[in-house]
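4.2 Preliminary Data

To establish feasibility before requesting continued support, the project team ran the inverse folding procedure on a target of 453 residues. The structure was first converted into the token representation described in Section 3, and no sequence information of any kind was made available to the design step. The complete token record follows.
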């Protein structure tokens, strides 16, 4: 079912239309003019990505401290965080699923607010059990933040700017890594790791920003009005806010594999899984690798991490421009090739200059494609099931990815270094590009309604 743009305003859209912010984006991705509301939505998504980047990077930076403070082994820590990743993977389905039912905006607000609460609780953790429980709950809440924010952005920004804005917003993940690196240098090293988690907790104010300045997705509002009208079988839908039981009706997982949609769902799953597994290997273990193999101090690898994040952020801009100018495939091909030709000399390097130069270049390619990956996967699902589709896509990729850090640790134990594990990433990305070339599915520049089945 596609959205009927000519239908009379339904009760939900009538209510939302009283907001000027909603009026500014009511044409959705078919619009041409950018307004302040579009930028507010883009900024909200970017700050959400920054929050995610800080949290993931902080964990990578504090691994040596967790081992010492809680007197646990690296195997025990990896096993616990693997369980955390397993639960977070299911949460990555829950939040977009919820966004399909209660709205993109409300799900985004609840998600970020809860993340901030549990980030603050990490600061007072004094035992391993308390830390891992609070950290796991925080990861469960933050797991869907980027997917929900991406839904709102995809459905409001003009189609011709879709990859650029998602890439620009996603680039703030890199700046989140920068902030984490600064926290490692100026907070963790002199004062301890706990206080560093107050930094991302402050970004919880993003929930207030979204509440005041960002409207609901017009695509979701119209889709919900039509669903409620169809469910009413000709009866008038009340103008009041729909009951929760009405709001939670929506697409099922089975519909993702119906004729005409099934191929696109499998492509989304394939791209998300290969991208996630590639990132987990390097993103989780790079700082520890520099400390263990090359003897870098906390301050040294934190400083490297700062510029590593900047390099990744710059990669987003190039790949986002290529994705909107030519195609999503060319953007991912460019980023993957840059990564492949630079990660090999980095993993084998022994001198500091090579570790810096090739390390930054490799992240420019590896992380730079993620804005395009998020754009690409969102475009593969129609509005009525976009949240459910994105949720199941990133849940499956998360489930496949959670074992990657442990597998990389196994390779390290077997070979004496993480080098071999890092050298397996190019193989995975080559497989990804072969699969995309065979699938030949690309929707650069097309509106969501034109894509939908």
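Position-by-position output of the design step:
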């Amino acid at each position: 079912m596609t959205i009927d743009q000519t239908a009379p305003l339904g009760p939900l859209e009538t209510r939302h239309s009283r907001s000027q912010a909603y009026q500014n984006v009511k044409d959705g991705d078919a619009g041409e003019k950018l307004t302040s509301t579009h930028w507010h939505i883009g900024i909200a998504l970017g700050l959400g990505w920054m929050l995610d980047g800080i949290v993931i990077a902080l964990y990578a930076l504090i691994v040596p401290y967790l081992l010492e403070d809680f007197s646990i082994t690296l195997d025990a820590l990896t096993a616990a965080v693997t369980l955390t990743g397993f639960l977070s993977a299911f949460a990555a389905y829950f939040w977009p699923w919820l966004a399909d039912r209660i709205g993109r905006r409300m799900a985004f607000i609840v998600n970020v607010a809860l993340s901030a609460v549990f980030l603050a609780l990490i600061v007072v953790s004094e035992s391993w059990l308390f830390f891992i429980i609070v950290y796991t709950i925080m990861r469960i809440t933050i797991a869907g933040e980027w997917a929900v924010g991406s839904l709102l952005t995809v459905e409001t920004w003009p189609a011709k700017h879709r990859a650029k804005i998602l890439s620009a917003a996603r680039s703030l993940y890199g700046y989140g890594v920068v902030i984490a690196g600064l926290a490692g240098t100026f907070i963790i090293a002199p004062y301890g790791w706990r206080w560093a988690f107050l930094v991302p907790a402050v970004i919880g104010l993003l929930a207030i920003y979204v509440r005041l300045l960002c409207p609901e997705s017009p695509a979701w509002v119209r889709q919900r009005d039509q669903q409620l009208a169809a469910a009413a079988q000709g009866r008038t839908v009340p103008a009041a806010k729909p009951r929760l039981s009405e709001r939670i009706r929506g697409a099922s997982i089975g519909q993702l594999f119906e004729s005409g949609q099934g191929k696109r769902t499998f492509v989304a799953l394939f791209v998300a899984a290969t991208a996630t597994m590639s990132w987990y290997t390097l993103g989780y273990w790079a700082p520890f690798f520099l400390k263990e193999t090359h003897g870098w101090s906390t301050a040294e690898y934190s400083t490297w991490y700062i510029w590593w994040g900047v390099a990744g952020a710059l990669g987003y801009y190039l790949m986002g421009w290529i994705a909107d100018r030519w195609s999503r495939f060319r953007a991912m091909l460019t980023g993957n090739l840059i990564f492949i030709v630079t990660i090999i000399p980095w993993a084998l390097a022994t001198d500091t200059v090579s570790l810096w130069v090739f390390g930054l270049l490799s992240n420019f390619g590896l992380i730079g494609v993620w804005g395009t990956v998020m754009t690409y996967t969102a475009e593969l699902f129609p509005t009525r099931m976009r949240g459910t589709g994105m949720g199941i896509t990133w849940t499956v990729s998360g489930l496949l990815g959670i074992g990657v850090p442990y597998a990389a640790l196994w390779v390290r134990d077997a070979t004496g270094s993480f080098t071999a594990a890092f050298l397996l990433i190019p193989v995975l990305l080559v497989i990804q590009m072969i699969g995309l070339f065979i699938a030949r599915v690309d929707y650069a520049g097309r509106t969501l309604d034109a894509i939908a089945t």
